Amino acid sequence: MFASEMNALFRLLAAVALVCTVVVATAQTQQTKKPLHIVGKTGFDSGRVFLLPFAGSTYYAGSVAKEYKLKRGGAFEFNDSIAYPTAFLIGVRVGTDWKYMSNVFFTESGEQYISCKDNRVTPSIENETMREYIDEYLPRFDRVNKDLDNLYDLKDSMVKRFHQKIPPSVQADWDDKMSDIARKEDLILLKFTQKHPKSFIPLWKMAEMLPGGYKSIFDSVYSTLDNSVKYTFTGQRFKTNLENVRRLDIGKKFPQLQAYNAKQQKAYTPDFAHLGKYTLVHFWLSSSYPSIRQFPAWIDLYKHYHDSCSFDILSISVDDKSFSETWTKTIAEYHPQWQQFIDWDKKIAETYCIDFCPVNFLLDEKGFILKRNITPQEMEQILKNR
Questions:
Q1: Is residue 2 in some structural domain?
Q2: Does pTM surpass 0.70?
Q3: Can you tell me the distance from the alpha carbon of 324 to that of 16, in angstroms, rounded to the nearest whole number?
C-alpha cells in the first residue's frame, strides 16, 4: 500500500513538473526577441524623430526611447528587437518644440513601414495586431466615444453657464455620467479580451489605464488573457504593478513610504494613523501647471481647517534631481506649512504608477484611504459639513 501511494505521489509530482516546464518554455519562447526595422515618413523636413514608450518604460525589456535625425523629405528609420507585439508612440521635435505626437500603434517583428501625418492620430502601419486594433478593437468604442464627446460638450457649457463655479450637485451628476461611461468602456475591454485572449492589445491598454487607479476590471481582464500574453516581460510587469496599485485602492491602509525630506535626507513618511482626522497625501510636480494651480487652494484650506478640523496635508514631489532648483523656488514662493517629501529616485512613482500629477489620496484618522483625486472644492465641502 505504501509503495503504491509513493508511486502515485511521484507520478503527480512528475505531472506538475511537466506542466511547469511547459509554462516556462512558453514564456521563454515569447521572450525570444526578433529584429524590428521601422521605416517611416513624417511631414517635417528637419528635426529629430523619437520612438517612445506608450505606457511607461518599465513595461519594456531594455532601453526604449530611440532618437533619429530626420532625413530630407521627413524620412526616418529605427532598428530594434522585440519578442511580441509591442506598443509605441512616435514624436517629432524641432529644436525644443514637440511638433508631432502620434497615438499608440503596435509593431511586430520584421520590417514595418509607418506613415506619420496628422497629430494625435493613429499612424498607418501594416501588421496583424494593427489590423485587429483598427478593424475589431476601436469600432467597439464608437458609440461610447460619441457619448464621451457629448459629455465633454456638456461640461464646457456648464463652465460657461456657471462662470466656472459649477454647483456641487451639478458636478456630481456629471461625474456619475462619466463613471457610467467608464464602466461601459471596461465592459467592452473585457468582452474583447474574452473573444481575443491571445491579443496583446488589452495588456497594453490596461498598462495605459493603470496610473488612473485600481479597478477590479483589471483583475478580470488579466485573468482572461492567455498564458502566452501573461508570461511575457510586459505581462509579468503589469501583474506586479497591478498588485502595487491595488494597495492604494479605496478602503486600504495607506503604506508608509521612504523618500527624501525637505533637508534632502532619506526618511520615512510618518504613521498616517497619527496625523489628523483627515490627511491628504498629495503627489505633485514642480513643472506641472495643474499641480501648481492647486497650491493656493490647498494652502487656504490648510490655513482654515488644520486646527479647527484636524486637517493635515503631506506632499510628495515626484521631481527628478534635475528639477531641484525649480522645486526649491516653488516651495519658497508658496511657503506650504505642511510636511514635504521628494521622490528623487522615482521609486515611489514607479512602484505605484504615479505617471501624472497632481494625484492625491484622502485618508481617515486611522490612515485608511477614503477617496482618490479629491478636488479642493470637494475637500472644503467635507470639512464644512463634518
A1: no
A2: yes
A3: 53
The set of residues, in sequence order, having a beta carbon less than 8 Å from that of 71 and lying 6+ positions away, is: none
User: What's the number of domains the chain is made of?
Assistant: 3
Q: Phi/psi of residue 39, each to 5°? A: -115, 130
Write the CATH number for 38: 2.60.40.10
Would you state the pLDDT for residue 320?
A: 87
Residue 127 CA to residue 111 CA, distance in Å, equals: 10
pLDDT in tens, 130-151: 999 999 999 999 999 999 999 9
- CA 102/CA 49 separation, integer angstroms: 11
Q: Quick one: angle between helices 324-334 and 289-305, nearest 10?
A: 40
CA of residue 93 relative to chain centroid, distance: 24
Task: Tell me how far apart the alpha carbons of residues 15 and 20 are, in angstroms, rounded to a whole number.
Answer: 9
Task: Kindly write down the DSSP assignment for every residue of 8-34, as one continuous string.
Answer: HHHHHHHHHHHHHHHHHHHHHHHH--E
pLDDT in tens, 255-296: 999 999 988 889 999 888 778 899 999 999 998 999 999 999
Please check the confidence at residue 21 and state whether its pLDDT lies above 80. Answer: no
Same domain, 41 and 97: yes
Strand order in the sheet with 110-115: 75-82, 34-41, 110-115, 124-125
The DSSP output letter for 288 is -
Residue 8 confidence (pLDDT) above 80: no
Q: What is the pLDDT of residue 66?
A: 87
State the DSSP code for 255.
P
Q: Which three cell numbers stand for residue 290?
A: 495643474
